[in-house]
UniProtKB/TrEMBL annotation, chain A:
Limits of the Wntless-like transmembrane domain: 227-324, 326-443
UniProt keyword terms in alphabetical order: Cell projection, Developmental protein, Endosome, Golgi apparatus, Membrane, Postsynaptic cell membrane, Segmentation polarity protein, Synapse, Transmembrane, Transmembrane helix, Wnt signaling pathway
Known partners and oligomeric status: Interacts with wg; in the Golgi. Interacts with Vps35, a component of the retromer complex; wls stability is regulated by Vps35.
Name of protein: Protein wntless
One GO MF term attached to the UniProt entry: Wnt-protein binding
Domain annotation Wntless GOLD: ranges: 48-226
Annotated compartments: Endoplasmic reticulum membrane; Endosome membrane; Golgi apparatus membrane; Postsynaptic cell membrane
Family: Belongs to the wntless family.
Function text: A segment polarity gene required for wingless (wg)-dependent patterning processes, acting in both wg-sending cells and wg-target cells. In non-neuronal cells wls directs wg secretion. The wls traffic loop encompasses the Golgi, the cell surface, an endocytic compartment and a retrograde route leading back to the Golgi, and involves clathrin-mediated endocytosis and the retromer complex (a conserved protein complex consisting of Vps35 and Vps26). In neuronal cells (the larval motorneuron NMJ), the wg signal moves across the synapse via the release of wls-containing exosome-like vesicles.
Membrane topology of this protein: Multi-pass membrane protein
UniProtKB/TrEMBL annotation, chain B:
Swiss-Prot/TrEMBL GO biological process terms: canonical Wnt signaling pathway; cell fate commitment; cell morphogenesis; developmental growth involved in morphogenesis; muscle organ development; neuron differentiation
Protein name: Protein Wnt
Keyword Secreted included in the entry's annotation: yes
Molecular function in Gene Ontology: cytokine activity; frizzled binding
Function of the molecule: Ligand for members of the frizzled family of seven transmembrane receptors.
UniProt KW keywords: Developmental protein, Disulfide bond, Extracellular matrix, Lipoprotein, Secreted, Signal, Wnt signaling pathway
InterPro entries: Wnt (IPR005817), Wnt_C (IPR043158), Wnt_CS (IPR018161)
Organism lineage: Eukaryota, Metazoa, Ecdysozoa, Arthropoda, Hexapoda
Signal peptide: 1-19
Family: Belongs to the Wnt family.
Length: 484, 399
């Protein structure tokens, strides 16, 4: 019977492979920790209040900005104190992204991939005008873009009148203190194709809108973008892994195809998993450097989602294959129980194998050594699976821990978030490469040991006639003893 | 480092005349920039030259390094001016109920904005230095966020790369603005103070305490999760990637914080080691004397508490050298207006109570009819509709 590579590989070769994979894993982690910056960074932009002098503020092509030629006349916030008769639409909050630094007019690079805008409202406490905890706010938001060319003008990108719930509280209600209002998500750009962006926000007051807002002093926009350095490191990882995984995957499938039997469920699952990973590895990000691809955020979600789904179902099948139980019903359980369940199953596999080991002493020495080796390697792979699963789940949990741009401990050289991302990403790739390699059908034939009781043993351990070559030999071994 | 040395050399060459040194010996020489508050409100069009909009008397009082900073960083002047005004308003609010009410004088060349009280190293002076320095930090950070100062630094803290700012920005984004506000305030506000005598050390310490006040308000709120905002933007909005940022507090919070520090300010004296040092300095060459303290020494001042049983002052604490005058009677020598004619609160037992405020001179009580705005309704954006209420108020005024 033909086994898989993991069963037939010598201990020396296996350890060499394992060491290589571990080194690759460490390299992945260090790339993230030492080279890559934090995954994302943000700029806090204070809105400049411009005065719209047009008659009703409905001119769609009029853009207000605070820097550059033709910048607007700004109004200071003293308009609250006096009874001036400005109309609400005359005040336009303008946000020009990005904000200049080091005397340079910074622009967005396409490497920065995406832009998320979060709006915050600073409302001053005034005992005469207290505001409700939750207030409806209506924003007339218009987004424009411009290229670096100094002759270029602002071109409209998107505009919308949106409603958001403003959630404000105040701990110490004192005059001149600000309410603590929660940030409101405003926009998400899936591709950062243009150089500059401009956001104009009006707070319309027609038909009784925006009346419960109190005294707004400032509007702040936090523009979050992925860091170019992180994208570069990430895409490099993808570029390296994509051909490797693709190569290993074709090699694996060739091996399976060469078998006389039709592929088993586990083999199909491995193929699907490899394909999902290849899809995830595909460095589509290069295209965003040349084309405007606003669907990238969605595509990224889909790719990641497919990968997660395949990986989790694979683990179920993988663990199930070695315990010979039906797990399809249990496949629907939630992700939290998932890890516990997986650990439990792996523990049972261990117990199962240990129980079956009791049979081993009655076998001939060569056969016993073979099975012991096989059991040992499976245990090793099981632990690797558990580790990979735990790290993936821990990744989710660690993600909840705040990772601010503000670092007071500036001596810390290691960028933990990025290290974790590249580490986990590398781990998936390495793990799946290892699986594809180790579970590929082996060409080696196990030599039949010439001995007097070899015939009876051969009968004992030959696969069941109803189950032609479908199982791994360990599975067969476990099932055989179970039948007895 | 080289830049810093260059600036130090510049400030040495910017030595003022001998007469001015003797005149300002008591208060140190870093306080004249406050006059920017009285400069005409700048308009929004960037002037061709930043000096044109400044009163020549105000500009003339700036130190050469401060002028250079203003020249080199367009937009900074408006921010400092806004900050100085904010500081004056905040000081007057915090001290509205005290004998000394942070009154400002008409600003003339060579005169100090807050009057001669700053010649004395008392608590009030400590507060003035701290609040002005804090206001510069705050308003520079604000102006950076607005984009009205182009030169705000883009500190790329992850690795000390020597590449250009554009590449830093593309690679790893820019740091928060409060850091720039902090360092700019150090450069601009502390210019005149070299920490050579105790008064200059007091000024340096209080300036630093003001700046630290802004940052500590920020951090204090971070720990209570009030001022820190986060956004999750991982896969499908999950929290695999989370970006957090700070929100600049309202300046009133900073003012309240510093007022608390004012109440708990510690009195300091020259420590022995300092005396030895300054004597040695006198004996040494003029150059060493002129250079004053190095940057590291400047902000690691070891001030000794006047009362040996007290703890030495921490970086956030305000320090003073001498007891405050009573502020009761008019004293032109110290620029004190006195409390004659000030309104007081008859029922209060605090400093705003009539007993303390009027220094036991007694007060007169008047019935006044006041027309006030009341029952205000606020209409977004720009209208506050109020009723006018006539109320009869009893007003107590110090004799």
């Amino acid at each position: 019977m033909q086994g898989t590579i993991i069963e037939n590989l010598s201990g020396k070769k296996l350890s060499l492979l394992v060491i290589l994979l571990i080194i690759a894993q460490i390299v992945c982690f260090l790339i993230g920790g030492l080279i890559a910056p934090t995954p994302a960074s943000s700029q806090n932009i204070l809105g400049t209040q411009c005065k719209d002098t047009s008659i009703n503020g409905s001119d769609e092509n009029k853009w207000f900005y605070s820097r550059g030629n033709g910048s607007c006349t700004s109004v200071d916030d003293t308009h609250f104190s006096s009874d001036t008769h400005q109309q609400p639409y005359q005040i336009v909050y303008t946000f020009q992204m990005p904000v200049p630094r080091n005397n340079l007019d910074l622009d967005y690079s396409r490497w920065q991939q995406n832009l998320i805008g979060v709006l915050q409202v600073d409302i001053r406490y005034n005992s005469e005008v207290e505001i409700a905890r939750r207030t409806l706010i209506t924003l007339d938001a218009r987004l424009a873009y411009r290229s670096k060319d100094p002759q270029d003008v602002w071109k409209p990108y998107a505009s919308s009148t949106v409603e958001r719930i403003l959630d404000c509280s105040i701990d110490m209600p004192r005059e001149q203190y600000n309410y603590n209002c929660k940030a409101m998500p405003l926009f998400e750009l899936g591709s950062l194709y243009h150089d500059y962006y401009l956001l104009n926000i009006r707070l319309p007051s027609n038909t009784g809108k925006n009346q419960g807002l109190g005294r707004i002093v400032d509007l702040w926009l936090t523009a979050i973008n992925q860091n170019g350095g992180f994208t570069k490191v990430w895409v490099s990882l993808k570029t390296v892994y994509f051909p490797i995984v693709l190569g290993v995957l074709t090699w694996y499938w060739k091996r399976v195809y060469m078998l006389s039997r039709s592929p088993a469920l586990l083999e199909y699952m491995l193929l699907t998993l490899g394909s999902a990973l290849t899809f995830l590895n595909l460095p589509l990000e290069y295209l965003t450097l040349a084309y405007d691809m606003p669907f990238m955020l969605l595509l990224g979600d889909i790719r990641q989602g497919i990968f997660y789904a395949t990986l989790l179902s694979f683990w179920l099948v993988f663990a199930g294959e070695h315990l010979m139980l039906s797990f399809i019903i249990l496949a629907g359980i939630s992700a939290g129980i998932y890890l516990l369940f997986l650990s439990y199953m792996i523990w049972k596999v261990f117990k199962n194998i240990s129980a079956k080991r009791a049979v081993l002493p009655s076998m001939s020495s060569a056969r016993r050594l073979h099975y012991e080796g096989v059991i040992y390697r499976f245990k090793f792979l099981m632990i690797a699976t558990l580790l990979c699963a735990s790290l993936t789940v821990v990744g989710f949990i660690l993600g909840q821990v705040a990772e601010g741009q503000w670092k007071w401990d500036e001596d810390l050289e290691l960028e933990m978030t990025s290290a974790f991302f590249t580490g986990v990403y590398g781990m998936w790739n390495i793990y799946i490469i290892a699986l594809l390699c180790l579970y590929a059908p082996s060409h080696k034939q196990w030599p039949i040991e010439p001995s007097e009781n070899s015939i009876s043993e051969e009968i004992e351990f030959s696969p069941l006639p109803t189950d032609p070559n479908e199982m791994l030999s360990l599975t067969a071994f476990a099932r055989k003893t179970a039948v007895e | 480092m080289r830049l810093w040395m260059l600036l130090a050399v510049l400030s040495v060459t910017a030595y003022v005349s001998l007469a001015e040194i003797t005149k300002n010996k008591n208060r140190g020489r870093g306080s004249m920039w406050w006059g920017i508050a009285k400069a005409d409100e700048p308009n929004n069009f960037l002037p061709v030259s930043p000096t044109s909009m400044l009163d020549s008397s105000v500009y003339g009082n700036l130190r050469r390094k401060q002028k250079k900073l203003i020249r080199d960083n367009p937009g900074v002047l408006q921010a400092i001016s806004r900050g100085a005004n904010q500081a004056v308003a905040e000081c007057q609010y915090q001290f509205r109920n005290r004998r000394w009410n942070c009154s400002t004088k008409n600003f003339l060349r060579g005169k100090n904005l807050f009057g001669k009280i700053v010649d004395k190293g008392c608590r009030e002076t400590a507060f003035i230095y701290a609040i002005t320095s804090a206001a510069v930090t705050h308003s520079i950070a604000r102006a950076c966020s607005e984009g009205s100062i182009q030169s705000c630094s883009c500190d790329y803290t992850h690795q000390s790369r020597t590449s250009s700012a554009v590449r830093d920005w593309e690679w790893g984004g820019c740091s928060d603005n409060i850091g720039y506000g902090f360092t700019f305030s150090r450069d601009f506000v502390d210019t005149g103070e070299r920490g050579r005598n105790l008064r200059e050390k007091m000024n340096l310490h209080n300036n630093e305490a003001g700046r630290t006040g802004v940052v500590s308000v920020l951090l204090q709120h971070v720990s209570s999760e009030m001022r820190q905002e986060c956004k999750c933007h991982g896969m499908s909005g999950s929290c695999t990637v989370k970006t957090c940022w700070m929100r600049l507090p309202s300046f009133r919070v900073v003012g309240d914080n510093l007022k608390d520090r004012f109440d708990g300010a510690s009195r300091v004296m020259v420590s022995n080691s300092d005396r030895v040092r300054s004597n040695a300095n006198l004996a040494n060459s003029v150059h060493q004397h002129r250079d004053g303290l190095s940057r590291r020494q400047r902000y690691n001042l070891q001030l000794k508490p006047y009362n040996p049983e007290h703890k030495p002052p921490g970086p956030k604490d305000l320090v003073y050298l001498e007891q405050s005058p009573a502020f009761c009677e008019k004293n032109p020598k110290l620029g004190i207006l006195g409390t004659h004619g000030r309104q007081c609160n008859e029922t209060s037992l605090g400093v705003d109570g009539c007993d303390l405020m009027c220094c036991g001179r007694g007060y007169k009580t008047q019935e006044m009819v006041v027309i006030e705005r009341c029952a205000c309704i606020f209409h977004w954006c720009c209208e506050v509709k109020c009723q006018k209420c006539r109320t009869t108020k009893t007003v107590h005024t110090c004799l």
